Amino acid sequence: MTFHAPEKYRVTEGRLGSDASFGNNGYFRVKLRRGRHEFFVNVIAGEGEGWEHVSVSRPHQTPDWEIMCAVKALFWDPEDAVMQLHPPKSDYVNFHPHCLHLWRPIGCAIPLPPSWMVGPKRIEEIP
User: Fold this and answer.
1) Which residues 6+ apart lie within 8 Å of 92 measured at CB?
2) C-alpha to C-alpha distance for 50 and 32, rounded to whole angstroms
3) What sign does the dihedral 32-119-112-97 (CA atoms) show?
4) Helices and strands counted in the chain (H then E)
5) Exposed, middle or buried: residue 6 (CB in 10 Å: 0-12, 13-18, 19+)?
6) Which of 47, 55, 50 is closest to 28 using CA atoms?
7) pLDDT tens across 3-46, in order?
8) Residue 88 Cα distances to 39, 75, 93, 120, angstroms
9) What domains are there in the chain, each with its CATH number?
10) How does DSSP assign 15-46, residue by residue?
């Protein structure tokens, strides 16, 4: 289980610029494709204080499930569990109206419900 920065998307110039010496911390401009359309998402990644974290944003549209899955696949391994959190309203922080976050605690597993509570994995399993 590994948190890893996709170096090919790292922004190395400007106010948020970094290089590989920053480890997994930095700003990444990730190019994604949906059908014939290419677009970018902005990702700020970091690890520290017991957490691995990425924030994912687009200028005028909140990232959807597919985008969050694509970013998760770039920064974590397929079998890593990460989460989006809905904290108490009193703890909300909203600097960008179209930004979502993925989190994983370092050194402990995220408790997961049994998959059957979500639904069947295959259509044949539906009674």
Assistant:
1) none
2) 29
3) positive
4) 1, 4
5) middle
6) 55
7) 999 999 999 999 999 999 999 999 999 999 999 999 999 999 99
8) 32, 26, 11, 31
9) 7-125 (3.40.1720)
10) TT---GGGTT-EEEEEEEEETTEEEEEEEEEE
**Cα-based distances in Å from 111 to 6, 70, 76, 83, 105:** 27, 22, 17, 10, 11
- 47-98 confidence digits (pLDDT tens): 999 999 999 999 999 999 999 999 999 999 999 999 999 989 999 888 888 9
Give CA–CA dist 96/57, Å, rounded.
8
Kindly state the DSSP code that residue 111 receives in the 8-state scheme. P
Contact 104, 77 (CB under 8 A): no
Which pair of tokens denotes residue 49?
């204080």
Label residue 106 exposed, middle or buried (CB < 10 Å: 0-12, 13-18, 19+): exposed
Q: What is the pTM of this model?
A: 0.90
